[in-house]
Every structure is written in C-alpha cells, then in structure tokens.
Amino acid sequence: MTSQSQGIQQLLQAEKRAKDKLEEAKKRKGRRLKQAKEEAVAETDQYRLQMEKEFRLKQSKIMGSQSHLSDEIEEQTLEKIKELNRSYNACMETVMNQLLSVVCSLQAKVHVNYRATN
C-alpha cells in the first residue's frame, strides 16, 4: 500500500510539474508574442519616419523650385505692369487730343435718307 500511495504521489507530482511546465511555456509564448509585436511596431514606426523624412525632402525640393518660379513670375508681372504704365503715360496725351479733336469738330449735316414731312 505504501508503494501504491508513493506511486500515486509521484504521479501527482509529475502531473503538477508537467502542468507547471505547460503554464511556463504559455507565459514564455505570450511574452515572446508581446515582444514580437513590440518589435514589429517599432520597426514599422522607424520605416514610417524614414518615409516621411524622404517625402519632406522631396516636397521641399519641389516646393522650393515652385516658390522660385512664382517669384520669377511675380517679377515679370511687375515689370510688364511698369512697361504698360510707361506706354499709357506716353500715349495718353496724344490719344486724348485725337479724341477731343474728333468730338469737337463735329459738323451738323442732314442725313441723306432724311425726308422732310409736311
């Protein structure tokens, strides 16, 4: 009997050790999954930051050249406005004199198709 109870005790202890080992393995698996997830998140964050940095560099190159073009266009526009103002000031008096001479030199005539009615 003692050998049987001793055998049962050994079986119970072996079962308990196996159960403990399974729980430990589950904990290790859970920790490993959590660690793998953290590593994956860190890796994706690093990749995202790298891509954002490259995007900002490309964007600054493009926007820099666009701002240069807009400055150049603005300069050309201002130059054209100055040229038009000079032309306006140079020709304004001549045009006004021509216009006034046409308006002031009207001759009153009866139109050829006019018929007098009695």
From TrEMBL:
GO terms for cellular component: synaptic vesicle membrane; vacuolar proton-transporting V-type ATPase, V1 domain. NCBIfam families: V_ATP_synt_G. Pfam families: V-ATPase_G. The keyword Cytoplasm does not apply. The keyword Ion transport applies. Keywords: Coiled coil, Hydrogen ion transport, Ion transport, Transport. GO terms for molecular function: ATP hydrolysis activity; proton-transporting ATPase activity, rotational mechanism. Residues 5-53 form a coiled coil. This is V-type proton ATPase subunit G. Gene3D superfamilies: 1.20.5.2950. GO terms for biological process: synaptic vesicle lumen acidification. It comes from the Eukaryota. Subunit of the V1 complex of vacuolar(H+)-ATPase (V-ATPase), a multisubunit enzyme composed of a peripheral complex (V1) that hydrolyzes ATP and a membrane integral complex (V0) that translocates protons. V-ATPase is responsible for acidifying and maintaining the pH of intracellular compartments and in some cell types, is targeted to the plasma membrane, where it is responsible for acidifying the extracellular environment. Belongs to the V-ATPase G subunit family. Transmembrane segments: none annotated. V-ATPase is a heteromultimeric enzyme made up of two complexes: the ATP-hydrolytic V1 complex and the proton translocation V0 complex. The V1 complex consists of three catalytic AB heterodimers that form a heterohexamer, three peripheral stalks each consisting of EG heterodimers, one central rotor including subunits D and F, and the regulatory subunits C and H. The proton translocation complex V0 consists of the proton transport subunit a, a ring of proteolipid subunits c9c'', rotary subunit d, subunits e and f, and the accessory subunits ATP6AP1/Ac45 and ATP6AP2/PRR.
